[in-house]
Amino acid sequence: MPLPDLSAIEREVAASWVHSGLTARLAARHANAPVWPLATAPLPACGVPGMHQAGPRTIGDVYARFKAMRGYLVPSLTWLDCHDFGVEISVAGELGLAGRAGIKSYGTGPFIARCRESVLRHGAAWQSLASRLGWLGDATAARRTTDAGHIEHVWQSLVQLYEAGLLFRTRLAGPYCPRCQVRLAEHELRRPGVHRTVKTSALVVRLRLTEVPAGMNACLAGADLLAWTTAPWQLAAATCVAAEAGESYAIARRSGHDDRVVIAASRLYRVLDDGWHVIAAVPARELAGASCELAFPRGDVRTGPVVLVRSSRAAADLAEPGSIGPDGRFGPALPLLSGEFFADAGRAIAIDLADRGLLFASMPWQSRQPHCWRCGSPLLDRALRSWYLHLGAGQDWVLSHTRYWGAPLPLWECPDGHLTWVSSLAELSELAGRDLSGLDPHYQALATILVKCTGCGGQATWTGETVAADFDNGLMAFERFERFERFGQAGQVGGAGLLVAGDRSWQQVTAAIGRLRQGAEPHPVPLWSGRILDERGRAMDRRLGNVASPLPLADKHGADALRWHFASLTQRQASTRVTDEAVRLVARRVLRRYLHIVAWFSQNSQPRPAAGTRVAAGSCGDSPGVLDRWLLSELQLLVRDVTAAFETFRCDEAAARLESFLRDLSRWYLRLTRRKFGDPADRPHSGSVRTLGSCLGVLTRLMAPLAPFTTDYAWGLIRTCGAPDSVHLTPWPAPRDQLLYPELDAQMTVARQVVRAGRAARAYAQMQARQPLGLAWISPASHAALDRELLALVAAELNVKSIEQGTFRGRRVELDLTVTPELRREALARHCVRVLQDARKRAGLAMTDQISVRWQTTDEDLAVALTEHDSAIRRAVGATSCTRVHPVGHPPASAATPDVTATLTAAITSTGTAAPAAARASGVPTDAAERVEQAVGGLNAVFWIEPLASSARSVAHHR
């Protein structure tokens, strides 16, 4: 039975979900169920959907579907991050605007309108992808950070934090991006790809000590400080020199000269050669309070203090606005470097220092330097006045920026410096004296609103600041649950919550907000997927332009194949490539194998019309055989293992376990029991039919979270009357301990090992698999582990007549390779069965279609073989008769009729080029004869297969 295209299946199933209202039905089914907290990182609506962003969201959907089948209500909405700085960068690039000055000249109103249009366009692309990848929930009802309701939620949270004393305004130095012109928070520096290896020069510069406080070591007078830096721009922007607390400093003098320098003891032998010797040592605290000449004096400021710090960043104001502007370029205060970008000024600085005799040493240096994760620009330390959120333990999170597109900071300030915080549009309407309930709360609208100051009663204006986008996004993890009235009530939150993100940054943001608001992290189980790499091994990033869309792979191989591949990578490796070949293998080895089994069962498990109704897929047969008992036991182990894997958030283990079971089901169980499905007399009472149906019903539910489209399609083929019309409306299966057979599982493992060893022995002896053999010996340990039924199964697999216990050691199997005439004739009969089965397949006949077989041969050995094994041949190929036709010169009766009903003739010839003369003389019409160029033991024969009138099918010719 040919399988339909996976993508076609998925689109058909997706349309049926919309038509049947599956999302609403699923929500109604769990209306009174406990809520299971799931938070997934919002999708950035500032560019086309990327593979590296769709992966984590898909993994979150896998667990959401699993928990929904476990009986939980999972609030699964698609959230779009519309306020990222990337939107401003992208829109400004489209318009050709350079920085904030370009935006102001273009007009803030038109610019914000273009930003809104951009996020709506990209948000629609994400909604389309959500539907294509089968994410649970209504993709058309996506929530955005631009929604007024969400912005009010942000305002309320900020007011609460301010009233709790956790929000304050001050001037602090920290990492600053001159391209985006924003301060970066500490957690942003831990994003993948932020720190990069940079090749530069380490400079050692002489700075003359000008003032030495009384009581310090006399050798310091007239000495030069040797300042070490791997960022030359800091020398031009510095207003002080930092001495590291806890460091010991050495005073060294060059032999034969009164040239003295002060250098950190840890760098003494790296910088100074043998001509220098140490004359004294001073701790860092004795240097504090001294003054030294600056490498680049500005105006009247020619000296700076030596300050004691614990880190280089603690020496605040390294980049003063007067020396380096907001765009990262030096200002007119330093004519030598005016207009030069700070990261590119190293060469000019080194040349100038060398010309003035201040450059003591220079050496190549390689170090890891931070870069902006949004635009890739190098970062500098810059002091800015902003609002900060106190996280405790000396950590502060910069929370406000002077940007245009973002959630506005709800703060108004009067000329006297009084602050007025607003928590909602209703409160803003009251303070403004007019109805603003329908306001779009963004930059352009708030800039013109004056409110009554709550401190003095005067007029207050909006401060013009926006909220950091990561704080805006982090609140989504809380808002999605606060929409449910039961959230937070005792007994209503089911199990540990899960947070899924593409990297640790968003998890750290939500954890920090949770600790501040609730005193604990809201999602005790964080989960992030590995990085997705491009073909060059680089992590996918919009800034690099190497983002790949998941849609081409989904359309080519199926969305379920892509989902399965994403899930199989979770927590297994730090980074991976999602390639066409990898997804293709999933489609072939997992989904198509699964659909092949389902389609084969659906087609061949149907009883004949007179036999009654269809066998229930969920029932088990009475007194099942050894293979059926083994499969049922393996099925219970599968349910237990997959459930445990999902409960511990290891969907990679669940995917691997399911793939292994599918392989065993197809290659072992189904191959060995296939003949039972084709025997018309045995089929209505076959326990294997019921066992396979039961297995597929459970297996389909286990696979549903990973492959929602494919399993729902298969469910329509195997579900019984009265079962839900969608697998996603069924409960999660539970293992049945009464069907566990641990001893049988161990015995079957031994049996399969013996079969593998026996096949290897056949291959080594170059003995065909279809040639029966008389005897096989197996090792004593293996023989003792197998009962009579399993020994018979092993004998059938090894194609031997009997199995005995051997006396050898070191091997599992030995074969008696003697081929008697009887065994040879049996092999000939099996070859004929294979040819007839191939002919049936090419004719498009199902296993339930009965045929009649006629054959003709001049080789008596083959005739004897066909006569001896007549009943076995008929049973194997589903034939009611297998008759030898008239001898040469006397054609078969039906062949003389022009409209003969014989639909296919398979001729077996030893020459591979022409049928024997007997076939030509038989009178078979040439248009009814299609020859299979293959020999049966070097003997010649011609076969005709004729479907019975009740099961006639169209014929597929073979060449």
Which stretches of 5+ consecutive residues score pLDDT under 50? 312-319, 484-492, 607-622, 888-936, 950-959
Radius of gyration: 39 Å
Characterize the overall form.
elongated
Please indicate the percent range of residues in DSSP E strands (runs of 2 or more).
15-25%
Biggest beta sheet summary? 9 strands, mixed
Helix-and-strand structural type: alpha/beta
What number is the mean pLDDT? 81
Helix content: 25-40%
Report the span from N to C terminus.
20 Å
User: How many distinct helices?
Assistant: 30
Write the topology of this structure.
Layout: H1 6-20, H2 22-29, E1 38-40, E2 43-44, H3 51-69, E3 79-81, H4 85-95, H5 99-106, H6 108-132, E4 143-144, H7 148-163, E5 167-177, E6 182-183, E7 195-211, E8 224-229, H8 233-237, E9 241-244, E10 248-254, E11 260-264, H9 268-271, E12 276-283, H10 284-287, E13 291-298, E14 301-309, H11 346-355, E15 359-370, E16 380-392, E17 395-398, E18 400-401, E19 411-413, E20 419-421, H12 425-432, H13 443-446, E21 450-452, E22 459-462, E23 466-467, H14 469-474, H15 476-482, E24 498-501, H16 504-518, E25 525-528, E26 531-533, H17 551-557, H18 559-568, E27 575-577, H19 580-604, H20 626-647, H21 651-678, H22 687-703, H23 708-718, H24 742-765, E28 773-778, H25 780-785, H26 788-798, E29 800-805, E30 813-815, H27 821-842, E31 851-856, H28 860-868, H29 870-877, E32 879-884, E33 904-908, H30 917-921, E34 941-947
Parallel strand pairs: 1-24, 2-3, 3-4, 8-11, 9-14, 24-25, 26-27, 28-29, 31-32
Antiparallel strand pairs: 5-6, 5-16, 7-8, 7-13, 7-15, 10-11, 10-12, 13-14, 16-17, 18-23, 19-20, 19-22, 21-22, 28-30, 31-34, 33-34
Helix pairs in contact: 1-23, 4-6, 17-18, 18-19, 19-21, 19-23, 20-21, 20-22, 20-24, 21-22, 22-23, 24-26, 27-28
